[in-house]
Predict the 3D structure of the following.
Amino acid sequence: MKKWFLIGSILCIGVQNISAQFNENPILNKENEDKKFLNWGYFLGFNQYDFKFDYKENNRDILVSKSLGFNVGLIGEMRLNNFFDLRFEPGLHYTSRTLGFPGFDEERQAIREVKSTYINFPLLIKASSKRLGNWKPFLIGGASTTLNLGSNEMSLDDNSAGTFRMKKWVYNYELGFGIDFYLEYFKFSPSIRGVFALTDELVRDNDPNSPWTGNIDAMRTRGIFINFTFE
């Protein structure tokens, strides 16, 4: 939480510094930027992924240690009208989480490091306000499907052999907000977005009474992105 508070504070300070450049009657940059039917760009950013567990019985919770990851991807945007755009944002998301399972004396059995490289395919609706000089706030949301390149879904080994398995494909919904800033040569858009898995991501161990997966009813990814878009 402290890391995200620091990043959010830096983001807010950056937004204030950029917006301070625009007075009440600024010279409009990229005046025809939003009139194009198709628009292209790319994004860079940070992520922090977590897991939400549903349990069959109310035993001790599985602990999740999160880390800061990164995002990079492309943007394709189709203009629908003055306020709505349809966006496709395929991206590569790298993250790592460490799971601590209760009930074990040895760290080798209790700890599972989950490194994930996701290829995310979101189809989103961007709802923007009226442009205010050289900036414009927006909301964004939609559905996405994600390919987990590190899933181990087809592995014959399970947690008894030290292999934590996850499903290869996950389906999500995403919600967020941000601000478009129209600079002299390009449009810059910082945004914050949450992603929430709709489908169970866990591949259970071969033993139905496994001490690692036997009590898990569902495991779903959730996460937060801070993206910086250049168009």
